[in-house]
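Order emerges. One example.
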Amino acid sequence: MTTDVTIIGAGLGGLTLARVLHLHGIPVTVYEAEASPAARSQGGMLDIHDYNGQLAIEAADLMDEFRGLILEGRQAMRVLDPDGTVLFDKADDGTGGRPEVQRGELRRLLLDSVPAGTVRWGHKVSGARTLGEGRHEVTFADGRTVVTGLLVGADGAWSRVRPLLSAATPEYTGRSIVETYLFEADTRHPATAKAVGGGSMMALTPRREIFAHREAGDTLHAYVGLAEAQDWFAAVDFADGPAAAARIAKEFAGWAPELTALITDGDTAPVLRPLYALPTGHRWDRVPGVTLLGDAAHLAPPNGEGANLAMLDGADLGRALATYPHDIEAALGEYEQAMFARSAEAPLFEGADAHVAATGSGNNPVHDLITAFTRHEPSR
């Protein structure tokens, strides 16, 4: 392939693409807005599925290294009633297809798998424009520019590359999560650690839910979900951590204290994360020399698939470009059709309200969720 490849975004999807291209001897440059690999926390745990994320890792020839990142026992899963009653408790027997790893460690593995200098740090994109004949110019915030024959937007929800292909923009889903951490939980927060168990835990009702999982060591990472308008959250002063935690906990009055402790006893200030999504079935007409992957292409509410799909996007795009080294448009067309199809598949679970709407059963959504999860669990 004689055309230069430019990837915007050094997340899991962009780095998987860079790795697969490197394996096929195709030069690539990745531009990333962050100043360095350690510029910010990379988030918590990821379950990497055997039917998408692990396929991408195999394509990147990193399976042995990936196995070294797996945290044993983290596929255990519990469902609790808000009063703390255990409704479902599944141990990790080692046969599940969704091993858990730390996102930051997985990103580091991918970064280390590409040649030094592949990622150019501190390059925040301000815009991109079409030059014709499949070439595009990318402009960075400091005024620098780069011209490329193949531009890949792997730059997430607020992609600067997406406008070249689509006028769609993410819209608020009506739900946000508040993120908290409890450190040294087994000794400092034993009741909560017991409630969460050795893997993940969920407790949910319509409009209110608490998810938590055990990260490396005895750190508990919680995601507290609330279905409210953005104005509601704007009235909460998240600059005052204790006051914000108390206000969010008030919405969970009557829940078991070992669950609400995930809100009130956090060792970090609660962080608000509004949830956005692109229109369901988002797609675009083929535009020469440019495409998208991951959240830039198919941002959706959390459903356990986002990182997995982004990595598979990157792997599939890399293999398509290697298969059609002298016909980029054939490669992009083949990649996009497969990507559109898999990203349009409805997720199993997006939250209590979404589950009730999908099943048409509102009497006991937690019971229905358990039934749905256990019915589909082996193939997830």
The domain at 5-71+98-170+278-343 is CATH 3.50.50.60 (FAD/NAD(P)-binding domain).
